[in-house]
Design goal:
heterodimer, A: mainly beta, seven-stranded mixed sheet, four-stranded antiparallel sheet, B: about 120 residues, mainly beta
Chain lengths: ~110, ~120
């Protein structure tokens, strides 16, 4: 069974930079997993941020960027703002019509 | 403008059945890949199923054999038939449009709550 890993929580100072990562318990994340990232605030539907590793979805500020760092997918937020405080989920396309979400990273801006 | 509106969530007893609907506008539901993603209370997102534009369906293991996806072209609506419901199926269920070539979810509905409890 494929398990996608994310740090449960991270914090960043206003104006600072933070990198969230998305890994696999077995193996490395590559662009072939088409990693994508979603932002969710309580009670709201997810919002699409990044897809296919590093392509920003329409309307997403340039402060959000995606990449592969080492053996993980990464979401970097620069110039963090208070309203970036959310839970961020990555999802990987495994194969044969199966997607797996990570457990999410709760980001605190303080 | 693309919109997805889920409905059909309810309180149902364990072992019962429920059908969720996802009404689409701004695109043709049978021309795109469509997914269901759920979120149990206080938990993370969980992908559970996809119906490709060509009609093939795939399911996460925990719902395989119990949940069935279908589409109605005339109503431009996606359905999720859920049978043999269990307490751990309790969640907000989101439908999402998929991107065929990029394997991500580009539009999401607002979700509908399914509660399985006696």
């Amino acid at each position: 069974q494929t398990v996608v890993t994310q740090d449960p929580s991270l914090s960043v100072s206003p104006g600072g930079t933070v990198t969230l990562t998305c890994g696999l318990t077995s193996g490395s994340v590559s662009p072939l997993y088409y990693p994508s990232w979603y932002q969710q605030t309580p009670g709201q539907a997810p919002r699409t941020l990044i897809y296919s590793t590093n392509i920003r979805s329409s309307g997403v500020p340039g402060r959000f960027s995606g990449s592969i760092l080492g053996n993980k997918a990464a979401l970097t937020i620069t110039a963090a703002q208070a309203d970036d405080e959310s839970t961020y989920y990555c999802v990987l396309y495994i194969n044969n019509g199966v997607w797996v979400f990570g457990g999410g990273t709760r980001l605190t801006v303080l | 403008e693309v919109q997805l509106v889920e409905s059909g969530g309810d309180l149902v007893r364990p072992g019962g059945s429920l059908r969720l609907s996802c009404a689409a506008s701004g695109f043709i539901v049978t021309s795109d890949d469509m997914h269901w993603v759920r979120q149990a209370p206080g938990r993370g997102l969980e992908w559970i199923s996809v119906i490709y534009s060509g009609g093939h369906t795939y399911y996460e293991d925990s719902v395989k054999g119990r949940f069935t996806l279908s589409r109605d072209f005339s109503k431009n609506t996606l359905y999720l038939q859920m049978n043999s419901l269990r307490a751990d199926d309790t969640a907000v269920y989101y439908c999402a449009r998929g991107s065929y070539s990029m394997y991500f979810f580009d539009y999401w509905g607002q979700g509908t709550l399914v509660t399985v409890s006696s």
